[in-house]
TrEMBL record:
Presence of the UniProt keyword Iron in the record: no
Transmembrane segments: 6-27, 34-53, 73-94, 114-133
The entry's keywords: Membrane, Transmembrane, Transmembrane helix
A Pfam short name: Metallophos
Tagged with keyword Transcription regulation: no
Residue ranges occupied by any Calcineurin-like phosphoesterase domain in the UniProt entry: 157-320
Organism for this UniProt entry: Desulforamulus ruminis (strain ATCC 23193 / DSM 2154 / NCIMB 8452 / DL) (Desulfotomaculum ruminis)
Protein name stated in the entry: Metallophosphoesterase
Amino acid sequence: MGDYIYSLFGFNGVMCFYIGYRGWTVLGKQASPIYRKLFWGFFALLVFTFPAAEFAEDLLPPDSLWLTIWGSYSMIAVSYIFLLLLFIDLGLLLNNRGISFVPRAIKEHKRTPFILSGLIVGTVIVVLIYGSWNARNPVVTNYALDIEKKAGSLKQLKVVMISDIHYGKIINEPRLNPMVEMTNKLQPDIILLAGDIMDGNIDPADVRRLTAVLSLMQAKYGTFAVPGNHDRGLRDNQLLNDFEEAGVKVLKDNYIKVDDSFYIIGRDDPGRRTGKGRKELGELMKGIDASLPLILLDHQPIDLINAQAVGVDLQLSGHTNRGQIFPSNFITGQIYELDWGPLKKESYHLVVSSGYGTWGPPLRIGSNSEIVNIKMNFQ
């Protein structure tokens, strides 16, 4: 188990201690014995479910997901209860330091702690229910871009970009059926998969199910993909062949000219390379006719200055998930120049997707599961 998961355990432990301490001091001491038992039972579920799920993952049957999902939900519940308690305690601190905004009748009422506790738990339950629903109801995000180049005889190109599917134990075949239906309804000219198609290594049977689904997506010029940091299996030549047979061309540090009208440039993901790094963009683009539109597919929204410098017209990226679960979007917003949406710098365009699937908890709070639909207009 890596340093990351131990850090997560540590942070989760701090939040659980704070919840337990505050819950006991304001609620447990004055409650009846039966309510004390209910409190400690609820607290035990919050504290032990997430670590139990992590440690038992390798011991349970592969198709047993209930503990994993339950553990991820409890981790998010702990985070939100902690934040709400912290917000309330900061408010009380200000109230006690002279900024009085809580009426004394409410502050000193013996039922106030119980009512606040009920509101906190109820709010978190509603938020988790909404997040689960939101993750299962993807939206289409539309963009129209004007490219100051000619593209042969093409005047417009309809591009569908999908990123961060994270196909695996949680995002399974039924979850991809709406993706196929929505994509084909858009009638794209080309489909671009911007990495993290899979959630780590998956077994051959799952590969066949995934590629069978991907083969159902129809586009005039076909489907192209690049690896993401979770696509460890895309180092395997057999897996690459499976994708090819399904009509998905994987571009790893190479490019392809489409219909003598535009280029698709696919970069390998830097997170996948343990030895030799990926090619520099200038080196990768040797031999390209830059007078034609250049579409760069790069899993992470990085290296933007170089992309602009070499004449890329449109970069498509994912990876950020737009934080996926609020308030993580504040973190991704600080890490990346753009963590979601469109950006234009002179003739250079960037579009970052929040992704179709989910990583970890099957929740979307403060972000959407999306399919990106772009109309590129040429001169």
